[in-house]
Amino acid sequence: MFSVVLLSVIMICYLDSILKLAECTACLDGKRTLNLYDINTDFIFSLSLIFGLFPFLLKNTLSYFKKMKQSK
């Protein structure tokens, strides 16, 4: 699970940085300055946690239904 969370954090940060550079059409000298609240760390953490928990929840849900089917 940790590796999925880490991988999703890296991917989300990379995509966010590309989007921040793409929206920089009126920057001075092609440089974009970041302020304190430009990076949404809560969103990045929440989304990476969801991506990390999704395989775990999917595996547990499928095993639960498999056990229910075998017990009938």
Cα-atom radius of gyration: 19 Å
Low-confidence stretches: none
Task: Give the N-terminus to C-terminus distance in angstroms.
Answer: 32 Å
Q: Regarding quaternary structure, how should these chains be classified?
A: single chain
Shape: rod-shaped
Features:
72 residues, mainly alpha, 2 helices, 72% helix
Quick take:
With 72 residues, this protein is mostly helical. It has helices spanning 2-22, 41-71.
Give the helices and strands, then pairings.
Blueprint: H1 2-22, H2 41-71
Helix pairs in contact: 1-2
Structure overview:
This protein has 72 residues and is an all-alpha fold. The chain is 72% helix and 0% strand. The protein is built from two helices and no strands. It has helices at 2-22, 41-71. α1 crosses α2 (41-71). The longest helix is centred in the last third of the chain and has 31 residues, at 41-71. The chain starts with a helix and ends with a helix. 1% of the residues are buried. The mean pLDDT is 79.
